[in-house]
Amino acid sequence: MIEFFKRYYNFLIRRTRANWQTIKSGTRKQRVLLVIRLALYCFALILILGSVTFAVVALSLPDPNKLNDRQVAQSTKIYASDGLHLLYEVHGEVKRTLVDPKDLPAYVGEASIAIEDKNFYNNPGVDWRGILRSVYVDVTSGSKSQGGSTITQQFVRNAILTNQKSWIRKIKEAVLAIEIDQKFSKDDILKLYLNEIPYGQNAYGIQAAAQSYFGIDAKNLDLAQAAYLASLPQGPSLYNPNGPNRDLLDARHEQVLDNMYEQGYITEQQRDDAKKEVVVFSKIKDAIQAPHFVTYVEQQLAAEYGEQTLEEGGLTVITTLDWNLQQLAQQAVDDGVARNTKSNKADNAGLIAIDPKTGKLLAMVGSADYFNDDIDGQVNVTLRPLQPGSSIKPYVYATAFKQGMGPATMLTDVVTDFGTYGGKDYIPHNYDNSSHGVVSIRTALDGSLNVPAVKTLDLVGVQNAIDTMKDMGITADISADKCGLSLVLGGCEIELLDHTSAMGVFANTGVRHNVADILSVTDPQGNILQQWQADEGTQVLDPQVAYEINNVLSDNNARAFVFGSNSPLTLPGRPVAAKTGTTQSWKDGWTLGYTPSLVAGVWTGNTDGTPMRAGADGVVTAGPIWHEFMASALKDTPVEQFQEPAGIQHILVDSLSGKLPTQYSPSTKEEVFSSFAKLETDDVHVPVQINKQNGLLATDQTPPDLVETKVYTVIHSEKPNDPAWENPVEAWAKAAGYSYPPTQQDNGSVDQNFITNQVKFITPTSNQEITSLPLNVQVDPGASNVSEIDLDLDGIPEGSKNSAPYTFTIDSAKKGWQTLTATVKLSDTSSITTSIRIHVNIPK
Questions:
Q1: Average pLDDT, the chain
Q2: Under a CB-based contact definition with an 8 Å cutoff, are residues 245 and 238 in contact?
Q3: Rounded to an integer, what distance in angstroms lies between the CA atom of residue 25 and that of residue 42?
Q4: What is the pLDDT confidence band of residue 439, given thresholds at 50, 70 and 90?
Q5: Is the C or the N end of the chain the one with fewer CB within 10 Å?
Q6: pLDDT of residue 534
Q7: Does the predicted TM-score (pTM) go above 0.90?
Q8: DSSP state, 126?
Q9: At what angle do helices 543-553 and 393-402 cross, to 10 degrees?
Q10: Half-sphere CA count of 156, side-chain side, radius 13 A
């Protein structure tokens, strides 16, 4: 081909030279004929050159017939569970969603035609007059404001070719535009244009633009919004509504509406109304909703399908997120963080909500504000390993229940040295630094007492407790060697998401469901790639054990002695189980709680680990957030009871042993409880035969008239053979007025001065429940040589009497079991002391 043009060029040169003399000296007619002949030769050359160039360019272009078969990159769309609320579009450099103009209001396409190509339905794909006009303006004014490209050409430039400024590209653009106009209808070309033209902010196509700029689908655009979007393709950066040239965009918007009116697409009234409408554009950050949840889901999708498919595969992802609950969760976190920032020196919080019956993740607030760098807002605290404090205790007590203990099992809350741990003696204390003596597991768990919890963990075994946690869904890297006994006080880190899911196992009668966050994934052709299916779950905990935990954690009366009766852990009129946790130095505050259908967990603190205000524990910082969310989430829903499985026994137990009463037990505490534990008989109240004169163990030498059976209340530790456990319990018991049986045997001697009538309480009686105040106390000293009787209640003096009648009045007393002690001082300076236990239970 090149050789042909060379020869043709040489031919023209030879012919010109050969005829040059004729041109110079020939007649006028001869000169005219030669010039015409040479012009024809040149025109032929230009025509051949143009045709060949056109042909070569055309051969290098894609086949217009295959436009509909192209694999057009589309963004992946992540929706809430309703399939309607778009949370985010995952895309690479292109964010696109294909739509059919037939599904759109007519004015959406007409707006683009009016401003970009008013002769769209009449031109052959190129507008020659528009091109010439553009060239003229460009040459005469130097302005680039006049575009000569039709809608068809713009589609070709953006979807098939590039924006490179060259004559070859322009030729290609024109060729393809003409071919496409011949192959496709105008409606099909408009469809291609609306789906592929760039609108800025990585939004390609009218659907992506509508969602990016207005947060709605293109089918819901009104006229004013459609006119704004039609204004953008000419210069997306220049006309960016969030940029500095909003006035230019507004002017172009009005021009679009004027053109639509002039071209007959809309009425004058429609134009004027659209111009008056105040259109609000979404901020860039509004393009993502529930950002921590979206990021969490993205990571799973990328792992399953790959990054490229995630960004360009056009997947439609329906998640488990309940948009209403997500908004309630965010509001609760916002309100709580505002309070905590002001009062508790805590500027961050996270919240997880799960349906325990299915495992569906309903809400995830990973921080107070994803876009706040001051709090490291993009860190998802719900997935961050953190120390859970006492909120982990239910797993340990569930392990105890599995091994035969029960809510009524009695523990001794007395400061105990558990040996060396971490290079120093491990001597944990309760939150209030006090000891509560003999308490039931119900009281210990509801009151979040530390010493009984550590004792329980030691008794059941750290590894067994960890196994329970693993079975219930805790995935953290925890071990007996790493955690030790500090496990039960939150010494090892777990994630809020796992913690909340595991607590849901209790709510779901011991059945575990894996956390589900994706309901379905479909490709652009509608093929289902992934579909969540409901299942029966896995029974990882005995239903009776689960119910016992539920029964204890929902017992507001049992935790009132620590948290009060109106704490944030209650939902009036609705059974709800809850547990709090606080870590050392006040770094983390937790509250987790549930009903049979909803479990929620809240963490509060500072992302950088800065301590909160001293005293700002979990019930103070996290409790109100949890309460606000649960109350609003469960509003107008049916009240549900925790299901009681078969085999649960409701019985009365001895108030000190937590076991079945014997004939020697005093009146039992009127507490009905549920028990999966093995039922044993009371071994705390021990009958012993003594010499009533000297108090020694009766023997065969003891005179029969001096032998009496006395019942001693013997308090032992959980490990009676371990002095580290036993000694502090015995010391506490004696200080509390409990007496131990004598160990010395009687030799039969008789003391004639022995006071045969021992000191007695006439009122009240031993183990009596006191339901009203003031309390009248009457003491019978059993002797005549009395100089004074002193009375005290749990170590607090209540008065002295030096003459009969020995009657006292107690006006106030704290609630619970207490020791009433009378000390009789005799004239010979000796004294006799006796004590009884009473239960103060004043109803409100």
A1: 84
A2: yes
A3: 23
A4: very high
A5: C
A6: 92
A7: no
A8: S
A9: 140
A10: 24
